[in-house]
Amino acid sequence: MTHAASVADVITVNVAVGHCLAATPLTADDEMAVRRVASGELALAEEMARAARDVHGHAYERRTTALRMTEIERDPWVYAGPFDLAHLERVHRQVFLDCAQRADLLSTADVSSLDMLRSVLDHMAHERPALPSCDAVCDLAAEHWANLAYASGTVGGDRRVERAFVQLYLRQAGWDLDWSRVDLGDVSAARRVAICDDQDRYCDYRWLSAALRPGMVRFGQAVASTPLALDDMCERAIEGFRRMSAAKRRGIDPRAYLVGSDQTEL
Question: How far is Cα 33 from Cα 43, in angstroms, rounded to an integer?
Answer without folding.
Answer: 10
